[in-house]
Amino acid sequence: MNTNGNTYTVIYSTVLVVLVAAILAFVAMSLQDKQNENIKLETIGKLLGAASQVDTTFTIEEDADVLGLYADNIVAAFFVDGNGEKVQDMNTGKEDKNKIEVTTTSDLKAQNDKFKKLEEGESGLLSELRLPVYIFDIKGHKVTVIPCYGAGLWGPIWGYLALDEDGKTIDGAIFDHKGETPGLGSKIADKPFYGKFHGKTFNMTGEDMFTVAKITAITEPEHSVDAISGATITSQALGKSINLWAKYYKPYLEEAARQAEKTAVSDSTLAAGTMAEPIDSVKTAAADAVETNVNVEE
Amino acid sequence: MSDINYKEVLLKPILKGNPVTVLVLGICSSLAVTVQMEGACVMALSVIIVTGLSSFVASLLRNTIPNRIRIIVQLVIVSLMVILVDQILKAYAYSVSKTLSVYVGLIITNCIVMGRIEAFALGNKPIPSLLDGLANGVGYGLILVVVAFFREILGSGTIFGIRIIPQSFYDAGYMDNGLIILPPMALILLGIIIWIQRSFQKDLQE
């Protein structure tokens, strides 16, 4: 057979391409459920990982049942819009841990695209934002976990920040990336880097709520983290994405902090007479307050 | 080409005809993924699998492939293998696929895969082609691991992420070499390896 004729070449390439496409489509579709399950498990692990940094005695074993751990420690999970109003609940898996709902990076990307339009001046989108909020109770500490997402050097980078009840103190952080340079930008996913976020705060009044910069360029150490040497673009991109996401979460965070404080103060004035250590009582009262708030909202 | 010397097919790519140090193929990825041992090993393993399988498939089809579009056909075969490996890892070995994510694209562009199909698989039977592909993958992986070993220990003081250089060295003023993490130093290391190899194998000297 003449394998060099035009007809043969055209038919051969068509058949080959269709065949390869069919194989790939079939494999991709049959494996998709399994892959999505893996992504969901990973996201849940990250959420727990960020929240658990509030208490060093709370450890997650390598082969732990993350679904069960999540269902046990989550208090509430819901979406807020850009005005800080709660718009929709997520399944927290209290009844059935296989029905846990979390947002994946593709959901975060959709929100990030809306942020970009908002930054360009399309103000009408603010109420269309669907920003996930996860509230955990880790050994009595109430932490709110919010995500961030942005473009790194080679691909997307994202992460989760665990915030204290005051809505600005960072209790824990965890980051991940699609394909930052191994050994340089990829270090954002390593503990020596994300561990530095613990105890830092958002600047709720200034222009930049949080920065990641090289140490000599840092002016407000309490609102900044030292960048990774050799990974300037990844570090700056991370700082930028935290900033952008924190900005749109700000209305919710401020409102939640106000609520927590208000109930804490009114409870502590009642309790102050009987309690020997009012500071402790404020803490527990505040913790209770968040719980009641959440219940009321539900 | 009817008499295939299997021993030569298997051993030549590892030393005398090493794809990286002798044929100087696949340099780009050996600079990019040799910062850490873990990445280098995962990359080596995936390249071994992909070169082996694509050489095998290309050799099966060798008599039907139209000569004028053979490069594009090879590309389709290689990408099919790479995507299949990636999809299966994503479903059944998610953590491995996370480490591998960047390298998948690099395998498709790796000249060794296409080079071996073009140079060997299109003219030989499937089984020798499979072995040739695997052996070339091993030859490539070997260099990758050697380079990564020096880069990780000198650049970060660790091997597989485990600290090797004791803290007391750092206390005494020792510092990790930041330069070695950057790609140019990989090229220099590669040059040193080629130098050492050629000083032993005189017939390679030009």
Which terms would index this structure?
heterodimer, A: 298 residues, alpha+beta, six-stranded antiparallel β-sheet, two-stranded parallel ribbon, 8 strands, disordered C terminus, B: 206 residues, mainly alpha, two-stranded antiparallel sheet, 67% helix, globular
Characterize this entry briefly:
The complex is a heterodimer of chains A (298) and B (206). With 298 residues, chain A is α+β, with helices and mostly antiparallel strands.
Describe this structure in words.
The complex is a heterodimer of chains A (298) and B (206). Chain A has 298 residues and is α+β, with helices and mostly antiparallel strands. Chain A has one domain (40-271). In chain A, 45% of the residues lie in helices and 17% in strands. Chain A is built from 6 helices and 8 strands; from the N terminus they run ααββαββββαββαα. Chain A has helices at residues 6-52, 66-73, 105-119, 191-194, 232-271, 278-297, and strands at 74-80, 86-89, 131-138, 141-151, 156-163, 170-177, 211-213, 224-226. Chain A has a 6-stranded antiparallel sheet, with helices on both faces. In chain A, a hairpin with a 5-residue loop joins strand 1 and strand 2 (86-89). In chain A, helix 1 (6-52) packs across helix 2 (66-73) and helix 5 crosses helix 6. Chain A is globular and about 95 Å long. Residues 274-298 of chain A have low confidence and may be disordered. With 206 residues, chain B is mainly alpha-helical. Chain B has one domain (23-192). Helix content of chain B is 67%, strand content 2%. Chain B is built from 9 helices and 2 strands; from the N terminus they run αααααααββαα. Chain B has helices at residues 6-11, 27-32, 37-60, 70-92, 94-109, 111-119, 126-155, 167-171, 183-200, and strands spanning 158-159, 162-163. A two-stranded antiparallel sheet of chain B has the order 1-2. Chain B starts with 5 loop residues before the first helix and ends in a 6-residue tail after the last helix. The model of chain B has no long low-confidence stretch (mean pLDDT 85). Classes of the chains: A alpha+beta (298), B mainly alpha (206). At the A-B interface, helix 1 of A face helix 4 and helix 5 of B.
